[in-house]
Design brief:
By secondary structure, this protein is an all-alpha fold. The chain folds into two domains: about 90 residues, no CATH class; about 90 residues, no CATH class. The chain is about 60% helix and about 0% strand. Helix 1 runs antiparallel to helix 2. The longest helix has 21 residues.
Length: about 190
């Protein structure tokens, strides 16, 4: 962590390690078939790019772009998909961008807190908006005020801003499994 509490150094180190592993895959694996590269990418590279993302979610666009660049490089290795743009390659492979995966993880963790999975401090993290005149999903969370810019990137503030965008049938899901399925469908529609 840097002196300004940003995670640029962590992102750079994660990207370097992931690029090193991608280089090893490229030089040691002769097959460029989809199932081989996706399996290796999912097992060896994705954990590096996603490690502790709820804790140190990239705050700057350049950090996010650096991590996304690693994923683009990996998907270009697959034979037959080189000519497609990154979004089409990800859609073809059934993968999300790292930004969508961070959002997915944030929303899953938030739902677990809201449903009481973490009883010790879960009730203190989020507060529901007490207004029955809400548009959208009807399960609104109250957004706290922030004096510092660094606080705007905090988990609770990030989640509340995104939570408001999702429809009622997603955030009002009765179980975690149902929530995940509906969230996947909603996120796959987003570009």
């Amino acid at each position: 962590m840097g002196e300004k509490l940003d995670m640029t150094r962590q992102c750079v180190l994660a990207a370097q390690k992931a690029n090193h592993i991608l280089g090893c895959i490229r030089s040691s694996v002769s097959s460029r078939l989809r199932k081989v590269i996706v399996l290796l990418f999912s097992a060896l590279v994705i954990p590096l790019l996603e490690s502790c993302i709820q804790l140190w979610s990239p705050q700057h666009k350049k950090d996010m772009d650096l991590l996304e660049w690693v994923q683009r490089r990996a998907t270009k290795m697959i034979r037959g998909l080189e000519h497609l743009c990154c979004e089409e390659r990800l859609r073809e492979l059934g993968l999300f961008s790292l930004e969508k995966k961070r959002l997915w993880g944030d929303l899953i963790a938030a739902l677990q807190y809201l449903k009481g999975a973490y009883r010790k401090d879960g009730d203190k993290l989020f507060s529901r908006a007490c207004c029955d005149r809400t548009r959208g999903n009807g399960f609104k969370l109250r957004e706290g005020s922030c004096r510092l810019d660094i606080r705007k990137k905090c988990f609770t503030v990030r989640v509340v801003r995104q939570w408001k965008r999702f429809p009622r049938e997603v955030v009002g899901a009765p179980s975690l499994e149902t929530f995940k399925v509906k969230l996947d469908r909603t996120l796959s529609k987003l570009i």
